[in-house]
Design goal:
The chain folds into two domains: 3-78, Roll (Ubiquitin-like (UB roll)); 84-147, Orthogonal Bundle (DNA polymerase, domain 1). 31% of the residues lie in helices and 16% in strands. It has helices spanning 24-31, 84-91, 101-114, 120-126, 138-147; strands at residues 3-9, 12-18, 50-53, 56-59, 72-74. The chain is elongated, with a radius of gyration of 15 Å. The structure holds FE2/S2 (inorganic) cluster (FES) (2 copies). Residues 39-42, 44-49, 59, 61 line the site of one FE2/S2 (inorganic) cluster (FES).
Length: 153
C-alpha cells in the first residue's frame, strides 16, 4: 500500500507515492538528494537527523512520510548560506567529525528563531536532544552564542 503525499522541501514541491511508514529521513536523502541530514541512531536518540517541519524541530528518523503531507520541510540545505551559525561553528571548533553538525545547526536555528538571544542554560536545554561524541559541546555552545551576537564562552 502506498499513500500520495505532497509537501515542500526547502521551498521546492515534492509529490509522490510512498509507503506510509517510510521515514522522512530516507525521503529527504534518497528521493530529494539532500544528504546533509544524517542518520546516527535511527531511533530518536541522537538528533543527527533533525530537520524543521513547519518550523518545528523534529527527528526525521521518527517521522513517517504520511505525516508530512501538506507540510513544509526545511533541511540544512534550506538555510541561508550566510546563516551566521555556519561561520560560527567553523570558527569556534563546533564541529569535528561532522556527523552531528547538521542536526546541531538545525536545533540551534530553531532555538534562535524562537529566542534570538538565548543564555547558556537555554542553549543547553535546546540542544539536549542532540548528541556529540567529539567536541565536548563547549565549541558548539560557543558557536551558538557567537551567532547570537554574544561572543564565545
Ligand atoms: S538518527 Fe534520528 S535521532 Fe538519531
Ligand atoms: S563532531 Fe563528531 S559527533 Fe559531533
Amino acid at each position: 500500500m502506498t499513500v500520495s503525499c505532497r509537501f515542500t522541501v526547502n521551498g521546492s514541491p515534492v509529490y509522490g507515492h510512498f509507503a506510509p511508514m517510510r521515514r522522512l529521513l530516507d525521503v529527504v536523502r534518497a528521493e530529494c538528494g539532500l544528504t546533509a541530514t544524517k542518520e546516527g541512531c535511527g531511533e530518536g536518540e541522537c538528533g543527527s537527523c533533525a530537520v524543521l517541519l513547519d518550523g518545528a524541530l523534529v527527528n526525521s528518523c521518527l517521522v513517517p512520510i504520511a505525516e508530512v503531507d501538506g507540510r513544509e520541510v526545511t533541511t540544512l540545505e534550506g538555510l541561508r548560506t550566510d546563516d551566521p551559525l555556519f561561520a560560527a561553528f567553523a570558527a569556534s571548533g563546533g564541529t569535528q567529525c561532522g556527523i552531528c553538525t547538521p542536526g546541531m545547526i538545525m536545533a540551534a536555528r530553531a532555538l534562535l528563531n524562537d529566542c534570538p538571544h538565548p543564555d547558556l542554560s537555554e542553549i543547553r536545554r535546546a540542544l539536549s536532544g542532540n548528541l556529540c561524541r567529539c567536541t565536548g559541546y563547549t565549541g558548539i555552545y560557543a558557536a551558538i552564542r557567537a551567532a547570537a551576537g554574544q561572543g564565545g564562552e
